[in-house]
């Protein structure tokens, strides 16, 4: 399944899978410790159903969301109204965002492992776009899973969660140049009522991402959005906080 089709198919269950309301609360706290929201504008890349955009908006940040799945955007617009926030959403993947948005934002966030959905041949262009979107002295925050650890351990099960009467099992298949990311969704009381969706993802590691970003920005690496130190062998996430070079 193509990446866009995968997330469109997932859109009807996504909020239950991530426990949306709790995620908004958690992200508001974490992002409030990283950004100074006063008079700030921010682009949320891969905004999905709006959890990070809403978290920023609740902090007072003027936020635009960019999302390639129109069905995800539909869910996000419903969620924005539910939380009484104001966020604009645009139907673009990162590398397709037009030049009219360049140098428009004080901040750019790209969270929730969005970078892993970008194929190798589009990674450089996409990462450079993050810098293009930023104003002078703008800051960006990128979160991707620590694929060095994942590739070393080759643990197939990502996690198993339950919410809203459904069970969600996320797991990998490992291939030479990519991973297959699978989500099995079924009714907890009726496992025969199930759906399996899959898409390829690309395990970009620290060295690959840093090589591009360091040409444009001053960057720091962390192991989580709590800004723990990054440990290549143990950290679950790779978090990159950067400031645009001018």
Briefly characterize the structure.
The chain has 246 residues and is of the alpha/beta class. Helix content is 32%, strand content 34%.
Outline, from the CA principal axes? globular
Structure annotation, total helices: 7
The largest pleated sheet is described as: 7 strands, mixed
Helix- and strand-based class?
Answer: alpha/beta
Quickly name the level 1 CATH class of the largest domain.
Alpha Beta
Low-confidence stretches: none
Helix content: 25-40%
CATH fold label of the largest domain: Rossmann fold
Total DSSP E strands = 11
Instruction: Identify the CATH architecture of the largest domain.
Output: 3-Layer(aba) Sandwich
Beta percentage is 25-35%
Instruction: Encode the helix/strand succession as letters.
Output: HHEHEHEEHEHEEEEHEE
Distance between the termini: 40 Å
* Sequence of strands across the biggest β-sheet: 3-2-1-4-5-11-10
| Mean model confidence by pLDDT | 94
- CATH homologous superfamily identity of the largest domain: Vaccinia Virus protein VP39
Q: Which radius of gyration do the C-alpha atoms yield?
A: 17 Å
Can you characterise this structure?
With 246 residues, this protein is an alpha/beta fold. The protein has two domains: 3-145 and 204-244, Rossmann fold; 149-201. Helix content is 32%, strand content 34%. It has seven helices and eleven strands. It has helices spanning 3-18, 20-32, 51-58, 70-82, 120-133, 147-153, 206-213; strands at 41-45, 62-66, 87-90, 105-110, 134-145, 157-163, 166-174, 179-187, 190-201, 217-222, 237-244. A seven-stranded mixed β-sheet has the order 3-2-1-4-5-11-10, with helices on both faces. Strands 6-7-8-9 form a four-stranded antiparallel β-sheet, covered by helices on one side. Helix 5 links the parallel strand 4 (105-110) and strand 5 (134-145). Helix 1 (3-18) packs across helix 2 (20-32) and helix 1 runs parallel beside helix 4 (70-82). The longest helix has 16 residues, at 3-18. The radius of gyration is 17 Å and the shape is globular. The N and C termini lie far apart (40 Å).
């Amino acid at each position: 399944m193509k990446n866009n089709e995968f997330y469109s198919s997932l859109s009807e269950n996504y909020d239950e899978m991530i426990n949306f309301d709790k995620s908004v609360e958690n992200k508001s706290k974490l992002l409030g410790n990283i950004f100074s929201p006063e008079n700030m504008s921010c682009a949320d890349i891969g905004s999905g159903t709006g959890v990070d955009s809403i978290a920023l908006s609740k902090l007072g940040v003027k936020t635009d969301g960019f999302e390639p799945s129109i069905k995800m955007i539909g869910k996000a617009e419903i969620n924005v109204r539910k939380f009484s926030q104001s966020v604009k959403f645009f139907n673009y993947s990162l590398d397709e965002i037009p030049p009219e948005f360049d140098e428009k934002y004080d901040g750019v966030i790209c969270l929730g492992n969005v970078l892993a959905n970008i194929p190798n041949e589009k990674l450089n262009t996409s990462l450079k776009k993050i810098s293009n979107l930023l104003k002078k002295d703008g800051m960006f925050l990128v979160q991707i899973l620590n694929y060095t650890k994942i590739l070393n351990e080759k643990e197939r099960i990502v996690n198993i969660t339950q919410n809203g009467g459904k069970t969600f099992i996320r797991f990998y298949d490992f291939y030479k140049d990519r991973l297959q990311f699978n989500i099995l969704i079924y009714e907890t009381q009726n496992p025969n009522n199930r759906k399996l969706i899959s898409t390829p993802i690309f395990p970009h590691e620290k060295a690959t991402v840093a090589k591009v970003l360091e040409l444009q920005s001053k960057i720091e690496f962390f192991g989580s959005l709590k800004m723990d130190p990054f440990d290549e062998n143990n950290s679950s996430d790779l978090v990159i906080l950067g400031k645009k070079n001018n």
